[in-house]
Amino acid sequence: MTTAETKSRTTAEHGQYRRPGPAQRALRAAPGAGSGGRVTVAVYAEDLILQTGMVHQLRMRPEIELIPEAEADRAQVSLVVVDMVDEATVQLLHRLQRNTSTRTGLVVGFFESGALQTMIECGVAAVLRRGEADQDRLIHLVTAMANGEGVLPGDLLGKLLDHVSSLQRTVLDPRGLTLSTLTAREAEMIRLVSEGFDTSEIAQKTSYSERTVKNVLHEVATRLELRNRAHAVGYAMRHGLI
């Protein structure tokens, strides 16, 4: 087995690149750790220098409780600190993605444009470039993720929006689909239901037969496990689909 394969296997099996150092063990023993609504954070770094630097930045902030490796699954936020997104990093991100109670942030030295798709697929909620990762920005990143928010550098946000727009235009639109759980036709019919139109009126307005309208609405109700048309309208409105 090569050195790279060994590193990849170790990352996939044990999760963290580095075990907790003395700073993290001291924090675990410190009085009051974990009290007062702190955000619990697990740090995953690919080498000792990155691990030590990240722990040093976070350990003295009262908003943060650093979690040792043995308890990492209970962290609210996982911070992955790497030079770049390589195969070992992707394996780790996929493993962290399986823990639905933890949100993952990426602190990265060099972020290639092609890594944006990987970030999306791995469920990364926030990205910060290491050159910009001072203490205040790290705390903002962690607390934002703990509150269910996402954080991206402006240029990456722009690329993400372009990516979503391209996906809608080139893949979904030709198939009559949208990024929501409803197709454009389904959303239009439910919108008309919400406005009080009956089956025959919806058929007239959409240029479909009454049978097609009934089939479309029945398919939506069955797929989303909705009881009736009123339930379908309520579901679509709650989720911002109409």
Concise summary:
This protein has helices spanning 3-14, 22-29, 48-58, 87-97, 115-121, 135-146, 154-172, 184-194, 199-206, 210-223, 229-238; strands at 39-45, 64-66, 77-84, 103-110, 124-129. With 242 residues, the chain is an alpha/beta fold. 29% of the residues are buried.
What labels would you give this structure?
242 residues; 13% strand; alpha/beta; five-stranded parallel β-sheet; single chain
Cα-atom radius of gyration: 23 Å
Helix amount: 40-55%
Strand percent estimate:
5-15%
Distance between the termini: 54 Å
What structural class do you assign from the helix and strand content?
alpha/beta
How does the major sheet shape up? 5 strands, parallel
Largest sheet: spatial strand order: 2-1-3-4-5
The stretches of 5 or more residues where confidence is low (pLDDT under 50) are 3-17, 19-35
Total number of strands:
5
Report the average pLDDT across residues.
79
Number of helices: 11
Order of helices and strands: HHEHEEHEHEHHHHHH
The dominant shape is elongated
